[in-house]
């Protein structure tokens, strides 16, 4: 009986210790802050917010495997994986982004879903992650070798910082802190602004949008938040902030920023309402049949692009982090091999200058070298 009581005390002590440690970790600034006050009151009025959380337009399960969520995650973490990380350094170019001619309309990709755009003299930065990891902890989800050659100091002044959602591989706390003095305005989904305000950004710098909200940023530059099929959250609670894609129009140039998300019928609606698009930036990577409703599968990329009425595709969400069990280079192989619709595909090297107005620019299959 005494032994049982001692074991019970030890067990309760361990549970208490774990609970306290978890609370301390989750209270760190990098986890951000849940929406509150006037921001939360605005969120409650959104038609996309129900029963205390944001909802997708279609019924959506994060995990679609026959196994439990726990079982699926255990398989992902401990099953044997082949070639999920490259054996050698990823090919990358260290372009001096600050020195690119300001008259040029360009895009520079930094790997995964981070990229810089200058169009008609206006600068945009999308989902920048310059830490060499995509998680709360520096030893988890490390960047592939050779991909972390850029940091915030390499960038010029940014007119608009665009964030698709608050997952760690799209909203990087150290990067956001470093960028604060360079950013003119932050554009994000409802609730995400709470993180920025908590991290020291002035409320006046933050523009939060619901799906189909349109804002004129300056003369001939407008952005509309459009639906995405995904989820959000940086800690234990999900879907307190909105995930979104964007239609960005700069004079006559029309750009679709896909963010993260699975296939849904809204691509047709977006194409009809906001298209056609000169370029659609779509995720192609970190997919799995085990979570096939929250990430585009390879076969769905071209279908989505066609429904968006996109003239060109730039596949992102690959080549920097291993967040699924597919080979690291499979997403790019798949999109080249399955382009039955013959939509031009951009596959730049990290750091390569993409000329937005040059439809004749060609790209190598660098990942096969």
UniProtKB/TrEMBL annotation:
List the InterPro entries hit by this protein, alphabetically.
Metallo-B-lactamas, NAPE-PLD, RibonucZ/Hydroxyglut_hydro
Any one of the GO CC terms:
cytoplasm
Q: Where is the Metallo-beta-lactamase domain?
A: 124-317
Pfam families from the xrefs? Answer: Lactamase_B_2
Q: Give a GO molecular function annotation for the protein.
A: zinc ion binding
Protein name in UniProt: L-ascorbate metabolism protein UlaG, beta-lactamase superfamily
Organism of derivation: Flagellimonas zhangzhouensis
